[in-house]
Amino acid sequence: MPGSPLRLGIDVGGTNTDAVLMDGDRVLAWHKVATGEDITGSIVAAAGAVLRQGNADGAEVFAVMLGTTQFTNAVIERRRLNRVAVIRLAAPATTAVPPMSDWPSDLLEVVGQDCYLLHGGLEFDGREISALDENEIRAAARDIRAKGIGAIALTSVFSPLDGYMETRAAAILQNELPEATITLSHRIGRIGLLERENAAILNGALTSLADRVLGAFDRAILDLGLKAPLFISQNDGTLMTAAHAARYPVLTFASGPTNSIRGAAILSGLDDALVVDIGGTTTDIGLLLGGFPREAAMTVEVGGVRTNFRMPDLLAVGLGGGSLVRDSGDSIGPDSVGFELERRALVMGGDSLTMSDIAVASGLMEFGDRAKVEHIDFADIALETAGEIVEVALDQVRPNAASLPVILVGGGAPLLSGDSIGGGEIMRPEYGQVANAIGASIAMVSGECDRIFSLDEMTREDAVASAKARAASQAQEAGAEPESIRIVEMDEVPLSYRPGNTTRLRVKAVGDLAGASVKIDAGAG
Amino acid sequence: MIEIGLSDLDDIALGATFLGTGGGGDPYIATLMTRRAITENGPVQMLMPEELDDDALVIACGNLGAPTVAIEKIMGADQPAAAVLALEKHLGRQADALIAFEAGGSNSMMPIYIAAMLGRPIVDADGMGRAFPELQMVTFSVYGASSAPFALASEHGDTTILEIDDDARAEYIARGIAIRMGARSAMASYPMDGKTVQRVAVPFTTTLCQAIGANLRESRAGNQDPFDELIDMLAMTHYGHAKVLISGTVTDLMRDTEGGYAVGKVIISNPEEPSLEIQFQNEFLRARQGGELRAIVPDLVCILDSEMAQPITTERLRYGQRVTVMAVSAPPIMRTDKALAVFGPKAFGLLDDFVPVEDLD
After folding, report:
1. Ordered structural domains, chain B, with CATH
2. Per the confidence metrics, is the pTM higher than 0.90?
């Protein structure tokens, strides 16, 4: 970026908060602190340190990019969630499976089960299943007010094709309930009614937490004296504005692993590679294709709820610094001492033999008291076992028989020794331990189009062109520099069992963040 | 007569995915529907085919539409039963039992749902013994039962009755109507008497789904070899012969779409033997190894993941998956010359003659 090239990348994880100061793709400084109860304080500590190390003035920072697991963890732990009223526009269709039919009961206890299945919804070809009934919606609004629920999740059948019915219903609801926060499903999910509705409900349940967490982020920016806009990482490795994240916190799910894959890409300079991120409890393996993580094709469960977010296709195996080692190194994990590593590892005076002890014993890592692991004579065997675990997992992520380089990142990277694995060269980039903060700092903005086209009314070329144009304009709305926008993905699914030609096109466009005039409220309908 | 209750549904769905042989649609939504219907209305009675009176009225039921629409526009609660009620009204008689078109995939669950809603029994049998891509590929049609009269219903309660002599033409016209109904219709067809069902249906396929599902679940829980256990179990059924064709890794995968079907082939390899090649069109149709035929439709070719023995559908196949391929002999009623003419290799454009899987090695 001409003029003011500095970017601040921050990763607020459950255990650590990392910050990096970047000049373009170059790392000027990095710092890691433990994430405390006071998120603002943790961010200020980490980011303040990199600004000092880099001798940078807050005013020189052009943008702040932040990735966080706060919202994913809240859903998994069933903590800090609020009640949600659920409205589905679909009747008389879909009544066979009401909303939240398959939710875990402990989550229902927190989020409630206040569901309204009302008239509305679209057919696959855009016809209305039934017309919106304004009186019905007003009656629901009165009921929601009487129950004192402040968050609403609104879903209409086939809204990813056209969201107008959700938008109209939201306007009626907002008129009745000016204080309510309304999540529109077509803003966050794709085709797949139950999964998209689930995502909208989870988003609604994160409403008050999002206020608090985004508030804490804002205060940190203020305390650091930064004038730059704050962006938040999404699950697909692109950015959204802080204002958008406050309304759609659910879009941060899985942004951590995505950022580490993207960070690995920038650190290695590769566009196509396998990325191995070794942490404390697990090793996450992802695939980098054309500079972006490959997405999962199917449903992904978050905290026991089926969703269909754009999420990286990750394989997690139980190998990390805290993994327990047994059978003289022949068996590792999948159980781990987790965050208790600093108390329970042998080198820390604990009683558990972990992979970190193996790494210290073989001189790959330095921490704790090495004398406590000197008696271990099977470190090589354990490291070999770790290599085998990763090799088997890599085979399942690899897209075809061709060998790909392997980029190794994460705090546990030393656990994998050697120069190559599964026929691919191992790269150990500098700063790999803060790959996710780096990934956050270099993220781009994106736009997507996912709709069904009838090829009886237009040529396939026209349909593809129309889908690409729509994705590009969505990217521009989200803040992308128009000249930098390019199409990175296109999926076509011809609809079986239908005469004539009907096809579903999903196109994704990405672009660099526009430097001069960032539209702060982009996309936050 | 036995009962199907809540605790049976997950096993039936798992077994139906196995019998789906890669196709048939994910039974997830149908299972959620049925769980709710049984919770509200109680368990469903299931009759063995021989328990039917000779003149009992049996109606086949299920749904018709596009799988892509199925995941978005779920059916109305009363819609599946509405097609059965429309057909009953047209016939001037209430059905004594309901039967599935298709034991594989999501249509395996629909008669159980409708039975729970209407308080009717189902018959432990179906018309495919597995999954097939088209509605006239049923043993009902093979052995002379007619799809007419054929009822369709939308979520609005709109219904239509088709009186068409030719089953393939009926399926074609019904699909056209299904699209106008939003590509998600309930259907009820092949009204048959009890004596006919005993002659033309593939028997005991719901209990088979349940037994397969239970077998897989128990071997997972008990750390037994799920494939050995399943082979032993199937040996005691009318499907009879089952074997593992290969255990290995997916080393190549070619997909295409032709005429609305997901077509392609998948290669599974291990270092000890020649690779196995499986050809698919929605369902897995043929397995060949080193140029030799190992199994072919209508015998069943199933791909399961090697660790959990979870059946894998064609759209979920991925390069590098560790899988075990099983072949299972279809029951005798699906292997006659008449049956092979409707859903044998030639019906799918394959040039091979049908050879029973137990004769191939």
Report:
1. 2-203 (3.40.1610.10), 225-347 (2.40.390.10)
2. no
Cβ separation B182–A124 shorter than 8 A: yes
Residue of B nearest to A499 (CA): B176
φ/ψ of B285, rounded to 5, equals: -105, -40
Which of B72, B157, B184 is closest, CB to CB, to A191?
B72
Q: Any idea what the CATH number is for the domain that residue A231 is in?
A: 3.30.420.40
Residue A525 has pLDDT above 60, yes or no: no
Q: Is the peptide bond before A92 cis (omega within 30 degrees of 0)?
A: yes
Chain A, 384 to 423: residues with Cβ < 8 Å from chain B are 395-401
Q: How far apart are CA B127 and CA B201, in angstroms?
A: 5
User: Which of A439, A467, A489 is the last residue before a domain boundary?
Assistant: A439
Task: Give the residue from B28, B32, B72 with the most A CB atoms within 10 Å of its CB, the best one to mutate.
Answer: B72
In a domain, A141, yes or no: yes
pLDDT in tens, A92-113: 999 999 999 999 999 999 999 9
Cα A140 versus chain centre, distance: 33
Same domain, A389 and A369: yes
Alpha-helix residue ranges (DSSP H) falling in B51-129: 67-70, 79-91, 110-118
Average predicted confidence (pLDDT) for chain B: 93
Whether residue A36 lies inside any domain: the answer is: yes
Per-residue pLDDT of B337-355, as tens digits, reads: 999 999 999 999 999 999 9
pLDDT above 90 as % of chain A: 50
Type of residue at A409: V
Give CA–CA dist B213/B304, Å, rounded: 13
Looking at A205, A238, A267, which one is the last position of a domain? A205
- A418 with A479, same domain? no
If asked whether residues A165 and A221 sit together in one domain, one would say: no
Is the residue at A388 inside a domain?
Answer: yes
Q: What phi, psi does A88 have (nearest 5°)?
A: -120, 130
| Cα gap A110→B59, rounded to integer Å | 44
What is the domain range of residue A124? 82-205
B101 contacts: CB under 8 Å, gap ≥ 6: B60, B61, B62, B107, B126, B127, B128, B135, B138, B189, B190
Q: Given CB atoms, is B260 within the 8 Å cutoff of chain A?
A: yes
Spatial separation of the C-alpha atoms in residues A42 and A35, rounded to whole Å:
6
* Residue among A162, A497, A504 with most chain B CBs within 10 A, to mutate: A497
Under DSSP, the state recorded for B109 is T
- Give the CA angle between residues A270, A297, B247 to the nearest 5°: 90
Query: Residues A191, A193, A196, A200: what is their CA dihedral angle, to the nearest 10 degrees?
Result: 140
DSSP A37-66: S-HHHHHHHHHHHHHHHTT--GGGEEEEEE
**Domain total in chain A:** 4
Nearest CA to B245 among B272, B276, B280, B269? Answer: B276
Which residue in B179, B128, B133, B182 sits closest to B155, CA to CA?
A: B182
